[in-house]
Amino acid sequence: MSAPLVKGWCPGAFRPMMSGDGLVVRVRPPLGEVSATQAAGLADLAERHGSGVIEATARANLQLRGVSESAYPALIQDLRALGLLGDADSEARRNLVLDPFRAPKTDQIARGFLDGLSRTEFSALPGKFGFVVDPGTPRRLAGISGDIRIESSAEGMILRADGCATGRLLGDTDEAIALGLNLARWFLTSGGVGADGRGRMARHLDGGTALPDALSGDVDPSPAAPEPQPGRQGHGVCVAAAFGQFTSGALRALSETGGPIRVTPYRMLYLPAVTDLPDHPDLILDPQDALRRVQACTGAPGCPQATVQTRDLARRLALSVPEGQCWHVSGCAKGCAYPRFADLTLVGRDGAFDLVKQGTPWDDPIRRGLSPLEIDTEIRS
């Protein structure tokens, strides 16, 4: 079996990715938030130009699937009219994940990063290189991938390079912005980007390159918060959908609440100013819903790298997942839908499934080549 094709970049609005069901067009909302008007507009565009589904991704973005090449130019014009696109260069660098339950300083830091990253000196940053802005206590984004991290600690905000257990104490938001951008400069000038244009901070440090003293420290980040669940969160509400796929009707219903909608990296949406829970059959508001215990990617035939169907199997397995556990059905070893640890992971390979327990899709399986019918027997044993 050939390894899954790792492209080194994620689909964007100006760089869509061809999949088995058409183009995947990813929208990176500024500061991870859309207005009610923009949400309603995205619902319309999903119906007009795509499959009618809007996916929330693990990078806190939204993406439209099933877009034909002929419809793509009109979609770009419509997204620009909604105020969701800048120029192609700045859009590609808008790779920030923000705490969706955030304090005002989170937005201030994110805006500073976006302004800085618009400079040409950062144009060589790899497509998957990202920033995490998580200065609240406890940390909400501890399990979310990011190369440069602004986090909380018992002593205050810290800057932490991914791959380092500790970080440098920061004085204020201005210093967070300045040193975060300095860390990105150091990554570029110290050889963090390979000849193929790829590179990640943790891999760079693992290779033996040491951080300069000005960008490192010995302050531990604050404890991690449990992953949020659907339902009330603070003054707002989190809403989920099966496998992170929001139908156009569901997104339109959320837009009718009138408030802003934040995209979370948990493949949920957060409405920070809602008091009445939205009501729509495609929305999941119960944290105990069985579909919340299983993750699944698009699978075949929607994804050309997958050799197995995933979501029908995931729906069938959902009722078997013990409470408190998370299972993952992945079409290939890349694990795009849930690139994290799961209690049980089924990984598609040559039309069958490999079984990984207590690991990630790229870990060594304990069983190989299981058919869908053999999976039930294996799980029960």
From TrEMBL:
Keyword Magnesium: no
Name assigned to this protein: Precorrin-3B synthase
PANTHER family per record: BLR3264 PROTEIN, FERREDOXIN--NITRITE REDUCTASE, CHLOROPLASTIC
Sequence segments annotated as region (Disordered): 205-234
GO molecular function, one term: heme binding
Family matches, as InterPro entries: NIR_SIR_4Fe-4S, NiRdtase/SiRdtase_haem-b_fer, Nit/Sulf_reduc_fer-like_dom_sf, NO2/SO3_Rdtase_4Fe4S_sf, NO2/SO3_Rdtase_FeS/sirohaem_BS
Alphabetically ordered keywords of this record: 4Fe-4S, Heme, Iron, Iron-sulfur, Metal-binding, Oxidoreductase
Residues annotated as domain Nitrite/Sulfite reductase ferredoxin-like: 16-81
PROSITE patterns: NIR_SIR
Organism for this UniProt entry: Antarctobacter heliothermus
UniProt keyword Transmembrane helix present: no
Domain of life where this protein originates: Bacteria
